[in-house]
Amino acid sequence: MNYRKLRNIEVSSIGYGCMGFSHGYGEIPSEEEAIRLMRLAYDKGCTFFDTAEVYGDGHNERLVGKAIEPFREHIILASKLFIDSEAVGDSFESLEAHIRAHLDASLEKLRTDYLDIYYQHRVNDDIPVEDVARVMGKLIVEGKIRGWGQSQPIAEQIRRAHEITPLTAVQSEYSMMERQFEQDVIPTCKELNIGFVPFSPLASGFLSGKYSNEDQYQGDDVRRVITRFNKENVNKNQPLIDLIQKYADEQQATPAQISLAWMLYKEPFIVPIPGMRKENRVDENLGAADVKLTDEAYLALEHELSKIQIYGNRTDKDIAKLQDME
Ligand SMILES: NC(=O)c1ccc[n+]([C@@H]2O[C@H](COP(=O)([O-])OP(=O)(O)OC[C@H]3O[C@@H](n4cnc5c(N)ncnc54)[C@H](OP(=O)(O)O)[C@@H]3O)[C@@H](O)[C@H]2O)c1
């Protein structure tokens, strides 16, 4: 494993996205197995664990808290809160009380008295980002959080918030299938020395090349509704998988590793957090930190990628459809 910095906070180059142990990918493993995998990742050098209050309605924070308790001080722990603008209303005092209550509940579940990074899960224009930044600034001074972040902001929201309390990280969807934030969010992070943490860096596993249109998904699995997994798009996106496989063969790596190595190559402040619930995937994904693309290989891959059209995406609107499904 090797290490990178999200602003002033050092993390392993690949983090652990823990959501799938509670939420979003159908049937979950046993608590014992989930804890075993998170601890195994730590033993292999992973020091960055990502959760959120909403994953499994607190289940995920409880699980992660239990898993990391023996080595809490040696890892970077990130969680997230949703700010309910209706509940908060217009007053700064009420916003502050809201954020403090959510943080305290998260800390208790996570068995710790501080978070390393606390994200606003979706930046909500009804609540001024400056006010959220002010509250986060107070929490940093008090030592309840070491740094803070925004998930899925636009560049302008990053700038406004950062001016009040510098952001540690921005967490947004980024992969070979979702590159919209290359336009201005990632350059803004670079300019302001903010880390960028790609979620769904394997496009919900698609980029591993291990899924076909024969696969069936159950329960709360987002792959039932996100359009990149519909049968037609799985077929249409095959040229992308073929391309990644070609580079995987050349580099003696796997497609998942090439997909992660590609983003690691781009900028030293990019730290992906794949989700993984099987031991071989922990080995494979963490192993991507050691797959180094040469300048030549990267440029050739980038050039070929630019010619490939991507079909389908992953939107919050599509994911919301799961609520009405059996
Ligand atoms: N801020 C936000 O709004 C937001 C939104 C979504 C996610 N997140 C965070 O980002 C993390 C990662 O997102 P994600 O889980 O969607 O990422 P992802 O890694 O793109 O997708 C995870 C899926 O890919 C599969 N997978 C991972 N590595 C694989 C491999 N090597 N071979 C085959 N399949 C593989 C996993 O399978 P198994 O799990 O079955 O092994 C799982 O089904 C989450 O855990 C969460 O912490 C944040």
From TrEMBL:
Organism superkingdom: Bacteria
EC number in record: 1.1.1.-
NADP-dependent oxidoreductase domain boundaries: 14-300
Top-level EC class as recorded in UniProt: oxidoreductase
SUPFAM superfamilies registered for this protein in UniProt: NAD(P)-linked oxidoreductase (SSF51430)
Database matches in CDD domains: AKR_AKR13C1_2 (cd19078)
Residues of the signal peptide: none
Residue intervals passing through the bilayer: none
InterPro entries: Aldo-Keto_reductase, NAD(P)_OxRdtase_dom_sf, NADP_OxRdtase_dom
One GO location term (cellular component): cytoplasm
Protein transport found in the keyword field: no
Gene3D superfamilies xrefs: NADP-dependent oxidoreductase domain
One MF annotation (Gene Ontology) recorded for this entry: oxidoreductase activity
Alphabetic keyword roster: Oxidoreductase
Entries under PANTHER family matching the protein: AFLATOXIN B1 ALDEHYDE REDUCTASE, ALDO-KETO REDUCTASE
Name listed for the protein in its UniProt record: Aldo/keto reductase
Species for this entry: Staphylococcus gallinarum
Gene: iolS_1
